[in-house]
Specification:
Elements: H1 2-36, H2 42-68, H3 77-101, H4 107-114, H5 117-127, H6 136-152, H7 160-185, H8 194-216, H9 218-222, H10 233-263, H11 266-287, H12 294-317, E1 325-328, E2 336-339, H13 343-346, H14 358-365
Antiparallel strand pairs: 1-2
Length: 366
């Protein structure tokens, strides 16, 4: 009787973690789209979210430090600027352009186009030699690219400007997650825990996105009656509250992904990501009035088949190599498992830093 009970508990726990992940992942997509209908400052919104994520990450690190009695990793300025800055800039542009696209396109077109990030992640993973060439990758690329073309073909709600923004965000997202893969797997940096990674990324992300905000939104937001030129306090408090909720959702998304992966597997998150795309499109069609033709749905099915094939191939080729693989997290697309960097390639100038025990950190977080 013990084995069925344990199995049932494991299944229920997995379902609960997937639902927890869906709440933040789907929730932030619809929430940002809803917010953009009345608040036309996506870059400012992103800067507020980055500030909130940094504060929540700092609080989480402090709590973990008090619980374990061990100091958290803190990079030197040299490593911080030269190792973290490229990843932070790519991440800021990916998130900023994604939020910007909500001003022009529907959730369904956003979701479908953002799925193409898998192509760019594969492309840059091959360039950085994090992914081994595989003949099946050609089939994956053709399926995803063909599905994206069919989805956007003769779409009644297609917007070129928004499509270009989110496609550019997907391209930068490929660079972003490839650099994140390298950043989190370099042992001497000690950023294996996503909370530490988020804590170090946010300040540089803010600095990288701020010039674009100054160029595009600074003047208009200074004259906006929603923030700086309010005649009543209630609109200001409402704007601050809505922006804060989005920041909390953004932090919760990264945290929920880590919980799901650490308690189940990266394959579970990848499969959950596929069904998340389906749920997002169905909800967009029902609640947001997004219109999709039969050709669009067929294109979405073709694209999902390509992503599913990629997930299946990664699961197949990962058998017997679980000790040398690490999860590559993603907020908008199914995750990839890529080979760990060899320790000999990681050490520079004979410097090594303490690497925290991941199992202990996972128990703390749970």
């Amino acid at each position: 009787m013990a084995w069925p009970v344990q199995f049932l508990c494991r299944v229920l726990r997995t379902i609960g973690l997937v639902i927890f992940y869906y709440i933040f992942s789907i929730g932030i997509t619809f929430y940002n789209k809803w917010l953009m209908k009345g608040f036309h400052f996506p870059l400012f919104m992103t800067l507020v979210h980055l500030t909130i994520i940094f504060c929540l990450s700092a609080l989480t690190r402090s709590a973990m430090q008090c619980w374990t009695g061990k100091p958290r990793v803190l990079l030197s300025w040299k490593k911080y600027l030269f190792k973290v800055a490229p990843t932070a800039l790519a991440t800021a542009l990916d998130i900023g352009l994604s939020n910007w696209s909500f001003l022009f396109i529907t959730i369904s077109l956003y979701t479908m186009t953002k799925s193409s990030a898998v192509l760019f992640i594969l492309f840059f993973s091959l360039i950085f030699k994090l992914e081994e060439p595989n003949p099946f990758l050609i089939v994956v690329v053709l399926l995803i690219a063909g599905g994206l073309f069919m989805f956007t073909y003769q779409s009644t709600q297609f917007n070129l400007e928004g499509f270009i923004l989110v496609l550019l965000a997907s391209f930068i997202g490929g660079i972003r997650w490839t650099l994140t893969q390298v950043l989190m797997q370099k042992a001497e940096l000690g950023l294996q825990n996503p909370v530490d990674t988020m804590y170090h990324l946010q300040p540089l992300m803010f600095i990288g996105l701020f010039p674009l905000f100054l160029y595009n939104e600074a003047l208009s937001i200074c004259s906006s009656a929603k923030l700086f030129r309010v005649s009543d306090l209630s609109p200001l408090l409402y704007s601050v509250f809505t922006l804060s909720v989005g920041g909390a959702l953004a932090f919760g998304l990264g945290f929920s992904e880590f919980l799901l992966v650490s308690r189940t597997s990266s394959l579970t998150l990848s499969i959950a990501g596929i069904f998340k795309e389906v749920c997002t499109l169905l909800l967009a069609a029902v609640f947001m009035g997004d219109k999709m033709t039969s050709v669009n749905w067929l294109g979405f099915a073709v694209c999902l088949s390509g992503i599913s094939l990629h997930v299946g191939l990664k699961a197949y080729y990962s058998k017997g190599k679980s000790g040398t693989l690490r999860q590559l997290p993603s907020k908008d697309s199914p995750d990839l498992e890529l080979p760990l960097l060899h320790r000999g390639e990681e050490e520079e100038d004979g410097e090594t830093e303490e690497v925290y025990d991941e199992e202990e950190e996972q128990e703390i977080l749970h």
